[in-house]
Structure formats: C-alpha cells, structure tokens
Design a protein that fits this description.
Elements: H1 7-15, H2 19-30, H3 34-47, E1 55-61, H4 67-80, E2 85-91, H5 104-107, H6 109-112, E3 117-123, H7 128-144, E4 149-153, H8 159-165, E5 170-175, H9 184-191, E6 196-199, H10 207-221, E7 234-237, H11 246-262, H12 265-292, H13 294-308, H14 314-326
Parallel strand pairs: 1-4, 1-5, 2-3, 2-4, 5-6, 6-7
Helix pairs in contact: 1-2, 1-3, 2-3, 2-7, 7-12, 13-14
Length: 328
C-alpha cells in the first residue's frame, strides 16, 4: 500500500490535476482510520476555496434502464465540448464480504479512456450516510482538481436517491417506456425529486412506446406542486445507443442552470446543502461516539437481545443507553 503523503503534497497534486494523487486523496477521505481522517480533514480544508464551481448532476434510474450506457454517451458528449468530467459511481456492496462490484470502468470503456474524463467507483457499504459524506468529499476534491461537470450515479432507486438529491444541483431520472405497474411505487417517491425525466432506449420498436411514456409522465408531473427552483420538470426521450437526444438533454440542463442562477435558487440551494452536510456529519459522528462508548458497548448486546425478544420497550432501552452515554 502506498505511503501516506503530507497534506501539502495531496493538496498540491489535486490542484495540479494529478489523477494519481486525486485518486489517493479520495481513498484517504474514504478511510476509516483516525489518522487518515485527520489528514483528510487538513486536505479538504485547504482545497475548499478551490471547489464549488462545477455543475453537479445526479443520475438515477430503474434497474435495466441502461445507466452506464447512458452515462458513457452523455459523458462523451460533455467531453466533446471540451469540458472536464468526473463520474462518481456509488456501486452496490456485498453485505457479506463488504466488497463492491466496481464494474463501471469496464462498462464505460470509451469514457474511461477519455483524457478529459475521470471515473471513480466507490462502495456504498452498509451506511448510506457514510456514502453521502464520502461522496461529498470526493466531489470537492474533483472540483479542486479542475473538473467542470460532476456526475453522481446512484446505486438504484431507493433511499440513496434522497441523499444524492441533497448534494447535487440537478437531478436526472432515467426511465423505461412500459416498464410495468410493479414500478409505480418506486416512481412516485422519485418523480417529485426529478428536474428532468429521460425515457431511455427510445429507438427502433420502442420509439412509439417512449413517446407515449413522455405524454403520461408530463400529465403526471402536472399533479406535483411547483418546485422551489421555479423550474418546470421536463420529460424527454433519448437513445444512448444511437446518440439521439443527448445534445438536446445537455442544452435543457444548461437552460435549468441559467434559470436557477438568475433567480438565486442555485446559491440558496448550495447554502442549504452546506448546512445539511454539517448536521449530517454531526449525526453520524454522534452515532459513532455512542456505539464506541465503553459503557454502551458493555450493555449493548444484552439490551439488543431484551428488545428483540420483547422484554424491554425500545424507547426505554434507548433512553437507558443514552443515559449511560451522556452521564459517564
């Protein structure tokens, strides 16, 4: 394993756009070792003034929607415009081994060889809160390294989307035409977070179904209240395979950014996200301290057993453990 660098060496490398140092800096912020966390804090504090100028775009979609294929086509279009692009892909994690299926570099082969693109997969792990914290920090490092557009690809459709929505400027939902009624429950929770819905694979025999899906989603969007941003969510079709609708989608995103920067929502949203990050960190730090407290650790296994078997009320157990934590 490479030896730790000094904080200054990490900062200098990141600001110079050195990808090897950038990758090592992201590995550092992902580390759980106390010494690494301390060093990472120093690095982040020094790069902070050089961050914040990128466009942050979150991308999610139902299983089978072709996220990686879409991101490769979309990413290649962005780099063709001369823009530097970073893709932060949160990958599924094995709950048994803790390993992650870091396949994005193989699924996005063309993009991974693009000199203007940088792809960084990271394991979701068991804590989505941990993911949010590490992804935010990785995003700051990528911005300081000069990447102008950051794409954050989420695990799937679920709680991780809410977390990612809270760290990006624009949220793109990829959907399939005629995906079936079993997805309706998923759609309702995610649609209201989306700034744009893109119906993918809109080519060949599925083109007509995609156009029908656009009309259905547009009708559904009318039922939602107007977003604080003042932006009216759009529904578009695209085909990553045939590179159709990709440029139109990018232009739509530019319209969104122009509107929210003009009406002040862009700045307000970023400020709210900074506060959310602070409180999120406090919550997770307190939880870590609580679970590692010696008095709590002594009682935790027996308390969990009592609650699980119904001998003690969960609220009573929680208060007792909190009392141990707060008064010792």
């Amino acid at each position: 394993m490479p030896k730790r660098l000094t904080a200054e060496a990490y900062v200098e490398g990141v600001l110079a756009g050195d990808r090897i140092i950038l990758s090592r800096a992201i590995t550092l912020v992902e580390s759980q070792l106390p010494a690494d966390q301390q060093l990472a804090q120093q690095v982040l504090e020094q790069v902070l003034p050089h961050s914040g100028s990128s466009l942050r775009i979150g991308i999610t979609g139902v299983p089978g929607v072709g996220k990686s294929t879409f991101i490769e086509a979309f990413g290649r279009h962005i780099t063709s415009l001369g823009k530097r692009l970073a893709v932060l892909a949160i990958d599924p994690t094995s709950q048994r081994s803790g390993g992650s299926i870091l396949g994005d570099k193989t699924r996005m082969e063309e993009l991974s060889h693009d000199p203007l693109a940088y792809i960084r997969p990271s394991a979701a792990g068991s804590s989505l809160g941990g993911v949010a914290r590490r992804t935010r920090e990785a995003m700051l490092l990528c911005e300081a390294a000069g990447f102008e557009v950051i794409l954050i690809e989420t695990v799937g459709v679920g709680q991780s989307e809410t977390l990612v929505r809270g760290m990006v400027d624009f949220f793109l939902l990829l959907m399939l035409a005629g995906a079936g009624d079993e997805l309706q429950g998923i759609k309702k929770g995610i649609i209201e977070m989306a700034d744009t819905i893109a119906i993918t694979k809109a080519d060949g025999p599925t083109k007509e179904a995609a156009e029908q899906a656009v009309r259905e989603y547009q009708n559904a969007l009318h039922l939602y209240p107007v977003a604080e941003s003042g932006w009216v969510p759009q529904v578009v079709t695209c085909s990553a395979l045939h590179k159709q609708g990709i440029n139109e989608l990018w232009l739509l995103i530019q319209q969104y950014f122009a509107q929210v920067q003009q009406n002040g929502y862009f700045t307000r949203n970023r400020q709210a996200q900074h506060l959310d990050w602070m409180y999120s960190y406090i919550r997770h730090a307190l939880e870590d301290h609580f679970l590692n407290h010696p008095a709590v650790q002594q009682q935790l296994a027996a308390t969990e057993r009592a609650v699980r078997e119904g001998y003690e009320l969960p609220v009573v157990a929680a208060r007792r453990l909190l009392s141990l934590f707060l008064h010792q």
